[in-house]
């Protein structure tokens, strides 16, 4: 950069007389960063984009709609969108589908931001110039490496053959792809290197929200090891078991399970001992999980009026749960999917109640079904209706053209598939609360990316795979007991006799429904490409276990090779 170029801009106002040419080879942390606040802002740049990426770039949609949990069917012309969501459901996506590029770009956007900030912070030779200690600076660097590892882990899960980025400044060409084994090793090492320099949740106290800690970094290693066989061909269940047990034993911080099933998603969750990592959200600022790309469009039209929350306008039913019954209300025979029926297996599950706000920042129930009453703007009792007719909606665990048919009425059209739905079709989970517009805690929950419950379930799976069903049952029940009344018969027997591969998969679904991980779980259990669920037959082979690299990405990065099968 030439100094006289900068002067030319100044001459319009103050003038400039020193035209000596002074060359700068690069902008470094020493001249770009001037204050402690500059360093903090630089450190935080990648976090906001990363929060957005939980749903931005279609990442949430690809994880859920390709699985046996959620669907985006054609609702009388709404959400057909050129059949793109149907291709996700049927696993017939192609590199020409925009979302195959979108997810890559969204995640690499975060990797690039994190790496750029890492280069800035690692270039600081004297932290005292910024009123910082070396320990503080090293902690920031460690957190950025963990954030990048989280993004890289998701890239590895989506695409497998990815590019490891460790430098962005001065780079004009993209790198070559690493093998899955190389990427796995890189992510593992970054997390291990960061661990000693991170704080614990105990040390940070109420300032823990949005911070990567020893516990959350260790939890990412648990995720990595749990899925290692899929990623590299070599299982690491024993390492997963060891690390998960260490987390539960308190080696990496003090964590605890909430005693209410809904507390992990409530407005108190930023400081909850169950939240191992959460992106802080608020009504007035950022709240990506409440955006249209995620939970706000996991609601029928006018559902916000049922909640009494009208600040965001009306919802648009992009996502609903896949059905468990045909149009005549007969349960489907396939074993996968059918999420609501999987909950109904245990009749006293507290989550089965219809979602209802109770006042005082409290709610009950996790599902929307049946009729949803509310008071309309005229102050009269009304019922939630859809976009395609004036009739009240009756939400049901079925997909078809029910229109204004009353509950229990047999309809002539027996077709139930992704191309034949209406606004009555499908039920909706409500994990994060929608408190009324006058509630002081509306839209205040953090997005709980890692919950302590995940560590219990991961350890339980490792125990189950090792043949120790009793230990697996104990671990699962430690979490599950909050979902049922005291003394419930729904808890697993001490010997774990009820546990099978299918029950383990079903229990992962019940606890983590619509939390953006179902595709990964199905792949780990070997049924993503081989399984059958609603309107979904097995794939021809398992190349669909990873997504294609989008054509737009390949066009701009000719060094990349397309994934096998595409």
UniProtKB/TrEMBL annotation:
Keyword presence, Metal-binding: no
Highest taxon listed in the record's lineage: Bacteria
Name of the protein in question: Starch-binding associating with outer membrane
Homology family: Belongs to the SusD family.
Domain RagB/SusD: 411-566
Primary residence: membrane
Sequence ranges assigned to domain SusD-like N-terminal in this UniProt record: 85-226
Localization (cell): Cell outer membrane
GO cellular component: cell outer membrane
Source organism per UniProt: Dyadobacter psychrophilus
Keywords on record: Cell outer membrane, Membrane, Signal
């Amino acid at each position: 950069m030439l100094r006289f170029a900068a002067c030319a801009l100044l001459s319009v106002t103050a003038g400039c007389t020193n035209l000596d040419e002074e060359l700068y080879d690069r902008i470094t942390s020493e001249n770009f960063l001037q204050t402690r606040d500059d360093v903090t802002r630089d450190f935080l740049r990648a976090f906001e984009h990363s929060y957005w990426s939980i749903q931005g770039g279609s990442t949430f949609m690809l994880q859920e709609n390709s699985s046996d949990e959620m669907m985006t069917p054609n609702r009388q012309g709404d959400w057909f969108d050129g059949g793109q969501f149907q291709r996700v459901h049927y696993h017939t996506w192609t590199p020409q589908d925009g979302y195959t590029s979108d997810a890559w770009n969204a995640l690499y956007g975060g990797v690039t931001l994190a790496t750029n900030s890492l280069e800035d912070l690692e270039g600081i030779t004297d932290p005292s110039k910024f009123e910082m200690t070396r320990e503080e600076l090293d902690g920031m660097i460690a957190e950025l490496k963990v954030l990048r590892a989280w993004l890289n882990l998701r890239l590895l899960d989506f695409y497998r053959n990815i590019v490891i980025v460790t430098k962005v400044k001065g780079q004009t060409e993209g790198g070559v792809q690493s093998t899955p084994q190389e990427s796995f090793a890189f992510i593992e090492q970054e997390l291990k290197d960061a661990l000693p320099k991170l704080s614990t949740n105990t040390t940070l106290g109420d300032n823990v929200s949005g911070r990567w800690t020893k516990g959350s970094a260790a939890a990412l290693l648990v995720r990595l090891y749990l899925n290692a066989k899929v990623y590299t061909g070599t299982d690491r269940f024993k390492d997963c078991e060891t690390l998960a047990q260490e987390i539960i034993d308190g080696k990496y911080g003090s964590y605890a399970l909430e005693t209410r099933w809904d507390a992990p998603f409530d407005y108190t969750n930023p400081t909850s001992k169950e939240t191992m990592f959460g992106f802080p959200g608020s009504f007035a600022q950022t709240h990506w999980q409440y955006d249209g790309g995620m939970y706000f469009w996991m609601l029928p039209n006018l559902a916000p009026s049922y909640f009494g929350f009208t600040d965001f306008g009306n919802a648009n039913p992009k996502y609903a749960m896949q059905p468990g019954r045909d149009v005549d209300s007969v349960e489907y025979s396939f074993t996968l999917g059918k999420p609501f029926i999987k909950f109904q297996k245990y009749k006293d599950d507290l989550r089965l109640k219809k979602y209802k706000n109770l006042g005082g920042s409290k709610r009950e129930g996790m599902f929307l079904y049946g009729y949803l009453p509310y008071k309309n703007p005229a102050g009269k009792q009304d019922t939630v209706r859809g976009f395609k007719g004036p009739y009240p909606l009756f939400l049901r665990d079925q997909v078809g053209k029910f229109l204004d048919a009353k509950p229990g009425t047999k309809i002539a059209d027996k077709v139930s598939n992704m191309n034949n739905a209406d606004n009555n079709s499908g039920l909706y989970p409500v994990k994060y609360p929608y408190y009324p517009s006058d509630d002081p805690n509306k839209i205040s929950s953090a997005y709980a990316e890692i919950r302590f419950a995940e560590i219990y379930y991961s350890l339980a799976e490792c125990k189950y795979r090792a043949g120790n069903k009793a230990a697996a049952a104990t671990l699962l029940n430690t979490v599950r007991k909050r979902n049922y009344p005291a003394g419930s018969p729904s808890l697993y027997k001490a010997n774990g006799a009820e546990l099978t591969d299918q029950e383990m998969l079903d229990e992962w679904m019940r606890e983590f429904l619509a939390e953006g991980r179902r595709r990964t779980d199905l792949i780990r259990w070997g049924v993503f490409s081989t399984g059958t669920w609603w309107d979904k037959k097995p794939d021809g082979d398992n190349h669909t276990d990873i997504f294609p690299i989008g054509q737009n990405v390949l066009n701009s990065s000719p060094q990349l090779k397309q994934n096998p099968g595409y």
